[in-house]
Amino acid sequence: MPEGRVLGLDLGDVRTGVAISDADRRLALPFGHIKAGAPQDLKAIVEIVNENDVTDVVVGHPLSLSGKPGPMARMAEEFAEALGSTLSIPVHLHDERLSTVEASRALKDAGASNRRSRGAVDASAATVVLQAWLDSSR
Prior knowledge:
Blueprint: E1 5-10, E2 15-21, E3 28-35, H1 40-51, E4 54-61, H2 71-86, E5 91-95, H3 99-109, H4 118-137
Parallel strand pairs: 1-4, 4-5
Antiparallel strand pairs: 1-2, 2-3
Helix pairs in contact: 3-4
């Protein structure tokens, strides 16, 4: 099984949630969020990749509930392609259906307020997507 940290991204209109795995690829942890919008988001991701010895990137792929790609899924595909041509490491798409809902529910259960937790929801959603990818890769 490959080793090395994996970066998980949950793309959004305002913020992109970021998560990172441990080097053994067992556990995804929230890493924070970055401001969405090219080209500064690509630059920020490249910096995170370089500073944390990341060997793979996983981008959340927001398919519809039926599993078909819509406009947001196509945006994620284009972003992953741009990121892949910028980085010299693999970039993967992973189905993220309901990851934000799951992350919001978990934070609410933990007592986080909606207004304060928007960035935390983004990072948590990225963690959900990354953990699902890590689990499916084993």
